[in-house]
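User: Fold this; tokens only.

Assistant: Input:
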Amino acid sequence: MNKGFSVFSVAVIVGLFFGMSVSAAYGAVTSAQSLNLPMAETGYVIDDESRPDVTDRVARISYILGEAKIRRLESDEWEKVTRNLPIVEGDEITTDEGARIEIQFSKDQHLRLAENSYIKIVNLKDDGIAVSLSLGTLSLRVKNF
């Protein structure tokens, strides 16, 4: 076995030195556009089908201790809350005895819900957030408004 550089290694080193991409140095025939990779300037993929179906704001459960349940809008079923669970407008959340959760709306906006509490996410938009606390205690931490 040869302990020196392989032809591929030399091609990669020479290609990088002269500003060529590794795939060009190796001779790949697939272009980035045919792979539908994001454009370097904007980070967007040029594709008419790439528009997301959901355009609403989403929060998440960032911390949970104990048992909590969530009921989605237009649902009669309560399901168990888990970490990183997405929270959307219309969701109702309740915490059991000894439980605590934290909802993260953004990097600088957190809501903590104490035990035996019930909250409904009334409005979750970029221009404002509204919650309704029917039972229990919450604390709110907002660094930037």
